[in-house]
Amino acid sequence: MDGFTYDDRIQLINLQLPHDVIAPNIWGELKAQPALVSLKLGLMQGIESTASNDALDQNTVHYGELAKRIRGGCTAGQGLDALFALCERQVFQIARREDASSRIRDIEITVTFPKASLYGEGVELVHSITCDGQGARKTHFYTWRIKEMKVMTLIGVNAYERRAKQPLVVHLQFVPSAEPKLADRTYLQQLFGVEQSFAQLIEDSSFETLESLAEWVVKQLADRLSAQNIPCEVIRLKLDKPRAIAFADHPSVEITRMLGNRQR
């Protein structure tokens, strides 16, 4: 396929772990919780040679072996810091070629806690890494996600919409501008506690438009995170209004704010 630019990836989605992970629950208590690991690996070269030979070679990654290594490396009482370190280490080891070069150019490790969200479908922390050609980090950052929060609020421009609250489905993610302190109990409790304070902001609001609500709540969140020593580089918010239009799933407003608080 001469002339093509390759962007080939190997993915492993929602790997179940043999041991729970210690993290804050919905009440802010550090408890053992079920967690899922997902991996997305950007390959240094395309899968063309693997495909043409119909056999695994040094341009791809054996995802079955990778899954076994991660599950085998898990330990009882492990924390988020240890789990991310385990996943990164196993990826780099399995991606090393015989000549010591690396098969991968970037890694995305997602740890999902399906029971850690009071309003949504789960809490996720994502570690995104770019790699050099020798299997070491070049750059990295973390993203915090809260999936599909269901929040009741007073929203709408029509008179009948001012009579009662209606549901919004909220998707929130932000990139902390400093290295997350994943081994710090207080930091983790503050990070996991973002959901409830954020949901309360929306519940107590009474805007007419999604645009006004989105702009206001992102500013409020940025200020609150900064006050908790979790300044953010990027905040992305999407608001779905499923009861607004009878013949559509929902209208949405999505905004992204680059806050310029980078600290690394």
TrEMBL record:
It holds the Pfam family FolB. Gene3D superfamilies: 3.30.1130.10. Belongs to the DHNA family. GO terms for biological process: folic acid biosynthetic process. One of its GO terms (cellular component) is cytoplasm. This is dihydroneopterin aldolase. It comes from Neohortaea acidophila. One of its GO terms (molecular function) is dihydroneopterin aldolase activity. Pathway: Cofactor biosynthesis; tetrahydrofolate biosynthesis; 2-amino-4-hydroxy-6-hydroxymethyl-7,8-dihydropteridine diphosphate from 7,8-dihydroneopterin triphosphate: step 3/4. PANTHER family: DIHYDRONEOPTERIN ALDOLASE 1-RELATED. The keyword Lyase applies. Residues 144-257 form the Dihydroneopterin aldolase/epimerase domain. The keyword Lyase applies.
